[in-house]
């Protein structure tokens, strides 16, 4: 059974990262839906507001509590996040509460000797509220995917991308459930399973980037395509190791090197999109979104090195 201190820190780390991810999924879906689907747009807007509120609570609980490594990993926000939010709001007309981003940028880390066990109750309730919201957005995303696949709904988003964000929500839900049961989520025994999951996510990011680039961006298209193939190969290797319950040997080290290269590519891509130097259909906040997910994955891999 994990200590209250560990429960609070792991829960807040998880919520700070994934609640923003869920909030942004809502924004991307809202931006992708045609105006005739006003009811679905309103539902996506409502989810955005719910996750904004939950993220605000997580930020409030985290100040002076979370580990400095999390802040330095640039997985909560990056130096581009605020700019990406403002540009996305301008382009889409979707209101984005950037006050939370200011608060996240000013978060202070906790100290090792600080007793944070008294936060276990409020954090447990935050986890419960997050679980309820995630369960509902999974249902909403699944409904959208099914409608698109049945040709009853048009959305400016790939069906496989909807499936991608469903799996991310399910991963968040699974981790929250573990914490609520008193189980640690950052266990070395789970590393290969995490690698298999995140390698697939990184592969899909690369292929989505490839598909959203203007056809004239040939060089970037080929780079993204190569990253997609590379991480698909890494996913297969991690899945085989996980299935055979073998030691990871040098796979984690190789994956970390590849993840850093992909992170650098995403960073350059985010800058290019924000500076209007890359022709694409990529909404600015999506570029920063996938960059943060790469940073999150790198932080996971480095924590075991």
List keywords for this structure.
mainly alpha; 305 residues; globular; 11 helices; 73% helix
Commentary on this structure:
The chain is mostly helical. The protein contains 11 helices and no strands. The protein has helices at 4-32, 38-62, 68-72, 81-92, 99-105, 120-149, 159-180, 191-212, 218-244, 251-274, 284-303. Helix 8 (191-212) packs antiparallel against helix 11 and helix 10 (251-274) packs antiparallel against helix 11. The radius of gyration is 19 Å and the shape is globular. The mean pLDDT is 94.
Put simply, the count of helices is 11
Structural class by helix and strand composition: mainly alpha
| Morphology | globular
The main pleated sheet reads as: none
Order of helices and strands: HHHHHHHHHHH
Q: What would you report as the Rg, rounded to the nearest angstrom?
A: 19 Å
End-to-end gap:
24 Å
- Name the beta content range: under 5%
Mean pLDDT: 94
Instruction: Give the number of DSSP strands.
Output: 0
| Helical amount | over 70%
**Low-confidence parts lasting 5 or more residues at pLDDT below 50?**
none
